[in-house]
Amino acid sequence: MTEAGVIIMLGPAGSTSPEQLMAAARQAATLDLITLLRDHGIGPIVVYSSTPDDWPPPANVILSPSKTAFHFGTQLADLLTDLGWKRVAYFGGASAPLIDSATLTQIGRLLQTSHAHRRVLTNNLHSSDWLAMTDVDASLSIIRGSQRDNSLAWRLREEGSYSVQVTSPDRPATAFDLDTPSDLATIRHHPGCRPRLRQELEESRLLDPVPLPPILARLREPGTRVALIGRVAPRAWEALSRATQCWIRVFSEERGMVASERHQRGQVRSLLGKLLELQGPAAFFETMSQIVDIALIDSRVLMAHFGAYPDDADRFASDLLMTSAIKNPWLHDFTTAAANAPLPVLLGGHSIVAGGLHVISEILLEADGAN
Q: Are residues 223 and 153 in the same domain?
């Protein structure tokens, strides 16, 4: 009887072109991950997909389609119960696009260790994108009660007395995942982007309006003034500082707004959001252009500050600067102003001022090494 294996979960996809772009990228990243896992002798592999007919899996990969409304904890706990595994590695479909060989070796060892008691290996204790664990039976009630995978490692430690080991937080291989179109625009410039994902992204024209090329060009120029706005991660900011000779302004607000449930309670407040209220979007970006040359904005903080939080379709369209596709009036006006701003503006989620900064730093350092 098999005692250990891998589960990769892909949630439902929306119907708009930005949502379909994200779904296609997740599928491509999943196929790349399956290849890596097999190369390291890690398996068997179960792919859980709510749309199993949309893509052909490789041989020997089991598709477990969702038949009900998707709930992360319920689906994962039910699947683990059916499989009867004692140890498991869980991945979201796009949670490890730059995972490295050393990390995969660690995962493989943990899955083969039958005597390890209540151990977890993950990329982030406070916001896990993937994890490997022992003693699955002891975790099922905790898993079942988890709305999202991000809280799972923390809950296993706090509620299940699991010992949690975190891989290096300074490597985008473990800190970066694909949550938004901005993440896709970033990773397609990274030399470590895997083949299927790279092909998918190179074929898409939806990413072309995202101003990554001019932003990367300015970051290579000494003295460029950079604004990092939103839930800026200190280590990621430091990584960008080491990789460039730029002057960096950090406007860090509302870190932990999801984990603390401030977002859910409508309690997110942003000082820059107040400035945006007072000036309006066009004047806001005009003011910004007077103090910096480029801006990377975690726009979810501003969205939460203004109340009516947009759906995936609108958020992703905003990241792609597809103003005509945005239904939310405030977000439409904000995105239009960003697209027409007198400086390059990158819009996205938490990752662009966290793991994405590590990826950008590696892109810059790789280019410097090549020259």
A: no
> CB within 8 A of 197, min separation 6: which ones?
25, 28, 29, 32, 97, 187, 188
Q: Is residue 226 a contact partner of residue 236, using CB atoms and an 8 Å limit?
A: no
pLDDT for the residue 52:
64
Same domain, 126 and 225: no
What is the domain count for the chain?
2
**Which residues make beta-bridge pairs with 46?**
7, 62
Beta-sheet strand order (sheet of 87-92):
62-63, 45-49, 4-10, 87-92, 130-133, 119-122, 163-166
Supply 100's token pair.
């490295």
- The answer to whether residues 353 and 306 belong to one domain is yes
Question: Residues 302-312: what's their mean pLDDT?
Answer: 93
In this prediction, residue 71 carries a pLDDT of 81
Is residue 250, in this structure, part of any structural domain at all? yes
Tabulate helix, strand, coil % of the chain (nearest 5): 45, 15, 40
Mean of per-residue pLDDT scores for the chain? 90
Residue at a domain's end among 156, 175, 194: 175
Give pTM, 2 decimals. Answer: 0.91
The whole-number pLDDT of residue 170 equals 53
Q: Which of 363, 366, 368, 340 is nearest to 216 (CA)?
A: 363
Residue-range definition of the domain harbouring residue 226 = 210-370
Q: Domain boundary residue among 175, 202, 230?
A: 175
Tell me which DSSP letter residue 58 carries.
P
Query: What confidence tier does 371 reach under pLDDT thresholds 50, 70, 90?
Result: low
- Cβ(206)–Cβ(320) under 8 Å? yes
| % pLDDT > 90, the chain | 70
Q: Tens of pLDDT along 95-105?
A: 899 999 989 99
CATH number at residue 39: 3.90.550.10
Q: When comparing pLDDT for 124 and 284, which is higher?
A: 284
**Hunting for tokens 């409508």 — which residue is that?**
266
241 assigned to some structural domain: yes
